[in-house]
TrEMBL record:
Transmembrane segments: none annotated. Belongs to the glycosyl hydrolase 37 family. It comes from the Eukaryota. Its EC number is 3.2.1.28. It comes from Rhizopogon vinicolor AM-OR11-026. Keywords: Glycosidase, Hydrolase. This is Trehalase.
Amino acid sequence: MAPILNHPASVTFVDDAHRPVHGEADTYYGGGEAYIRSRTYSHSHIHGYNPKRAPLFEEDTHMRARRMSHDEKSVTGPRRFLIDVEETIRVVLEQEDTDGDFQISITDAGPKMMALGTATSNGFKTFDIRGTYMLSNLLQELALARDHGRKRIVLDEARLTENPVDRLSRMIKNSFWHSLTRRIDGDGLEIITADPKNRTGRVQPRIYVPHGEPAMAEYYRRVAREKPHMNLDVQVLPPKPDDPAFVKSLNSKPGILALAMNEVDDGKGGRTLRGIPFIVPGARFNELYNWDSYFISLGLLVDGQVTMARGMVDHFIFEIKHYGKILNGSRSYYLCRTQPPFLTDMALQIYNQLDRSDVESNRQWLKRAIQAAIKEYHTIWVAEPRIDPKTGLSRFRPDGLGIPPETEATHFTHILEPYAQKHGLSVHEFSEKYNNGILKEPRLDEYFLHDRAVRESGHDTSYRLEKRCANLGTIDLQALLYKYEVDIGTAIREVFDDELELDEDFDLAPFPPSVEAYRNPYRECSTARSQNSEEWFRRADHRRDMIDKYLWNESKNLYFDYDTVLEKQSLYESVTAFWALWAGCASDEQCWKLVSQSLKKFEVLGGLVSGTEESRGKISLDRPNRQWDYPYAWPPHQMMAWVGLERYGYLDDAQRLAYRFLYMMTTAFVDFNGVVPEKFDAVKLSHLVDAEYGNQGLDFKLVPREGFGWMNAAYQVGLSFLTTHMRRAVATCTSPEIFFGPAANLESAVAQATLATADTLGLAMESLNVDSA
C-alpha cells in the first residue's frame, strides 16, 4: 500500500511549475503548493479521501477496471509521483531501514519495494519503485523537500533513477562544496569554532589572532561584545607563536586561528572586515588543512570555483606570514606542524584559470604566492631541523613537546602504559606529569618526535613511518620540493621577467647543502638581492641527483625513503614513489620501470593501495592495521598517480586507475545511501573501515550533506580522465574486471583473491559482523 496522502478532501494537488528535473533542491523544492477542485472520484479513501457516498463501482462484484480522467496513461510523459513528505519518510524508514541508521543501504533487510501514488491520477494509481538505489534516493529527496518546508511534493521519477555518476557529480558541485564552506568572521565563528577533536571538556569558543594585526584583534573583540551569547574569548598571539613550550601551554585552552580577511563596506557607510571563505575536509576536521586543501582545490577548479580556490591560497600566504608556515590545520595545537608542501602548484593552477580581464592584478597575486612559497622553502624545508645537511634531503621533523592533544583519548594508551606502570601511576596521571615536564623519559620523547613527524607527513599513521619518520628523507617530500623548485624557477622566468624581489626579511638557506655550510652561522638575507630562475633550476637539478643517489633502487625498480640516521634505504614499498612522476623528476627509463615493473604491486580492484601487503607485514591484535597501509586507498595517492602517468604519456594506465577508483566510489554511493567517505578498503571495495579512527563521512541521516573534501575532489578530477564510454560503464557499476578483462595489470595472487571477494553485499555484511546463519 502506498503511503497515505493527507491533502484536503475533494481537491487535486497540482504542480505546474516547469522546473529542471535534475535541478538543485532550492530550485526543485523551493516553490509553493497549489490545489484545484477535484473533478472526479479518482482518489479513494485509502489515500486520504473519504466521500460520504462511495462510488458505485466499488460495490460491483467483478470490480471492473475503468478508465478515469486522472488515471495513469500508458503513453504520457515521464512519470511523476504525488507524495506526502512526512508520512512517506515515516513509512520508508519503518519498512526499509531495518538497522535503524536513518539510511537505506544494501545491508538493510526490508522488501526494497514501495508503491507511490502517481501525480496524474491524484494518487489513486500507484507505481512500485524498487531497489536500494531508488529507495535511498527517495529518502534523500524527501529530506531535501522537508528542508525547504514542503509538506507535499510532486516528484519526478527521473530524480530517483538519475544516472548515479551524474547525481554524485552534481551533488558535489552544487551541494557538498557549499556545505563544507566555512568563514572566520562574525557570521561564521559559531560554526568554525566547534571542534570535534577538543577533548579538554572546555567548549568555550576561542580565537587566536596573530601578532601585528591590531585591526583584526579589535574586530573580533567587537564581535565578542555584540554577540555575548557566544562567550567568545579573543587572544592575541606573541610574535613567535610556534615556540614549542608556548604551543604546549595552549593545550588546555585550544582555539581556532584567525585567517585572512578582506576589508569591505559594512552597509552603513563605513568599513569592516569579512573572512575569506574556504573549504574544510568535513566530519571531525572542521578547520582549514594544508594538503587536503590542495586536492580540494583541484576539484574546485574542475567545478569552476576558482575564487574559492584562490581564497585558500590567500589563507596560506597569511599563515606563512603570521604563523611561519602553512599549518597542518588552523587550530592552536597545530602551530608547530606543517604538512606536505603543494603551494606552488596550487597557485600556478589557479593563476592559469583567473579572469584575464586584469592581468596585472593576477600577476601581483601570483607574486605574493611565490614570495610566500620561497619563504616557506627557505625557513622550513631546507632549514634545520628538517634538512639533513649531509645528504641534502629534507625530512618531516617538526618541533613540539608532549603528547599530541588532538588525538582520541585512548590513542596512545598502549604506548604510555609501560611508563605509567614504571612510575606507579595511572595513564592519566603519568600523561599529566610527562606533559608538564615533571617526569623525563627520553625514549618517549623520541617516540613523539617521530609521531609528530608522521602527522606532519599527512600519512598518520603507517608502519612505513612509525618510530622513524623524523629521520626519513621520504620520496614524497623530495618530489614535492623538486616541484617547488621547478615551479618557482618557471614562474620567475615566465611571469616575472627572470627577476623577483622579496619583500620580507628572512635567512636564505646555504646552497649546495653540506654539513660545513650549515655549521657556518652566516646567512644571506632574502632582501639583499633579487631571485632569478637559474638558481632555482640548479636547486631542482641538485635535488633530482640526490633523489637518484639516495632514493632510487635500480634492482627493485622503485623509489624508497632514505633513513638519514641509519644511512640506508627503508625498503617499505610505498605508492608515493609515483609522486616522482607527478613532479617530473623521474627519467623516462625510470618511469617505464615504475609502470611496467612496480605499478602492479599497488594496483587492486579499487585502484591503488597505499603500500604493499608484504611491506606492511602481518596484522594481529598486538599489531593492528594502520589506515595509511595496505589495503587502504586514499584520494591523494590516486590523483597524484593519474596526473603523473598522464604527464609521461601513460594515459591508458591513468584512465584504468581512475576507472577503478570511481567504480568503487560509485558502487558505495549507489549501495549505501549516497555515502562519500574519507577512504576505502580498495581490496574489498568497502568503506566500512575499522582501522584506527574508522572512517569519516559516514555519520549522516537521510541525505548526505558534505561527502568528504578530497574524496569529492577525486571524483570530479577522476571523471575528467574517463572517456564517455568509461563514464557510462561506471554509471552502470560495471566491474573493472568486466570492463578491462580479468586481472588486468594485477598481481595474480592479488587478482585471484580480489575476484573471489568481489561480492559487495557479502563484504558489507562481513564488515558489519552480521551472522549469515
